[in-house]
Amino acid sequence: MTIALRQRCRNQHCRSKLPAPVENHHHAFCTRGCFESFYRNRCLVCEDSMRRKRESQKLGSGHKLCEREYRKFPRVYDFPAHKVPKVQISDEGSRNAHSTGIKFGIEGHPPSHHCLREWWWGDPGIGDLSLYDKGGLTLARIVLENGRYHLRAPVTWSRVSWPDLEGAKRGAESFALVTMSLDAVDPKLAARIKRDNETAHPMGPPLNRRPSRETAVYCDWKPSDKGATRIAPDIPAFLRRA
């Protein structure tokens, strides 16, 4: 009599190929998760449906034959121990904390393809929603309040917020760029602009910026000495009313 070997995982949600064919159908599972999921609502021995009363229950209530069978051959029904990876204790001795290889800043948090160069965001899992530069200085910070992400730094005249985290990060990066000085972005360009502003233009300032007697337009008009009710004789004829 030939017994068919199991080639694939018995869990209907997995059905992946087993590393090696097995004869015992209780061991035809690729991982412990598939095994526990399959037997969560089944008796471990007879595989009849059951409802658990506690998390550690393996056999159906009142299944006396299954209890005796399981006591005799527990290894036949339990998940095989050789499929569970063994925990190994490292033989390396303790080292100084400064040389453990822990990385911070951009080395420990590589920027995403959306983030700017040498800038990195903190870990949202620990509530760190701050934007840092290469040296670890905070450039921007957002806070989750009432289901929206509010910008707390840099401070803006009107409070801004976003409904999602990705949009808040992009907006915070934009405000961080606006508030940055030109010296921090491009020191050479900032020095050139400062030098150009301090050097006087060879042609001098515009005429309308520095009024003087030399640049003012001369006019010899004087008010008439006649009464206000009479027409001034110095008004041209074509400007007089008919």
Structure characterization notes:
The chain has 242 residues and is α+β, with helices and mostly antiparallel strands. Among the domains are: 6-83, no CATH class; 113-203, no CATH class. The chain contains 7 helices and 7 strands, in the order ββααααβββββααα. The longest helix is centred in the C-terminal third of the chain and has 15 residues, at 165-179. The mean pLDDT is 77.
What's the arrangement of secondary structure elements?
Elements: E1 6-8, E2 17-22, H1 32-38, H2 64-72, H3 74-77, H4 105-108, E3 120-121, E4 130-132, E5 138-145, E6 148-153, E7 161-162, H5 165-179, H6 182-185, H7 187-198
Antiparallel strand pairs: 1-2, 3-4, 4-5, 5-6, 6-7
Arrangement of strands in the largest sheet: 3-4-5-6-7
The mean pLDDT is 77
Shape, principal axes of CA atoms: rod-shaped
Helix content: 10-25%
Give a count of the beta strands, DSSP E runs of length 2 or more. Answer: 7
Quick recap of the structure?
By secondary structure, the protein is an alpha+beta fold.
List the keywords.
alpha+beta; 242 residues; 12% strand; two-stranded antiparallel ribbon
